[in-house]
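Course assignment 3, question 2. Fill in each field.
Student: A.L.
Task: Predict the tertiary structure for the chain below.
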Amino acid sequence: MQAELIGNLHKEKLPPDPWWIEKGILPKRGVLLLGGEAKIGKTFCMMELARDLTKADRALWGVPGLRIPAPLTVLYLEQEIGRFAFMKRIHERYATEKPPDNFWVATRTAEMVIDTPQGKEIVAGLIEQTQANVVCIDPISQAIVGDENSNNDIKHLFKYLKQLTEKFDHLQLSFVLAHHYSKPPKSTRYDDDILSELSPYNFRGAAKWFDAPDTLITMRFNKPRDKEWKRLETGWMVRQDSSPEKPIILAVKEPGRVEKVD
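Answer field:
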């Protein structure tokens, strides 16, 4: 590594397409962390995010401005509900729609963790096999053997993710991680109840969960309306661009579709 003059950076043109999801939501070679309380609907949102990424020129969850410029190959590492339950969701979601050809899934095994030598070899092998541009891990806490409360362990986790992006530089590899809140949310962070429940400080465990990602998306329950399975209010912290000014409301509708609603 060598230092370079700031004037050289000033002369260099900015890359034309730095994001997988525009407005800095998912930078190429970046990390997005999303989550909320248990059973809130994170997996539905993750599965639809992965599906949206595989499609050309569409908006994430139908949110205007959050455009996905090009279709990507996605690898989804399911770490929580197991093969049968995940397969059931896939059958329901794609009952009347062909699953994307560029959407790969690997379901939970004891060896598929990303902070042991064996697990690292397995995950790197899956990326090599699929040539994925984005890896979704749901949830990340089940994909590590380290202590989620240890800043040192989580620092090494994000360091390894960075090493994977360098190893697969030609893929411009990025990661989307699902994580859980602490119990209960830290309502003392803000005076406003809504803001407190959407605070990214609510993520469970070490402070590095808050510090390391490029973007953090938080979710809280909202009362579902007619024909909605779930309704979620989402908060956004985007470090490489401006964050949305107001919470964005998402609805999970049959058979698992996620879309923005008013």
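Instructor remarks: The helical segments are 6-11, 42-53, 82-93, 117-130, 151-167, 193-197, 208-211. Confidence is low (pLDDT under 50) at residues 187-194.
Grade: pending
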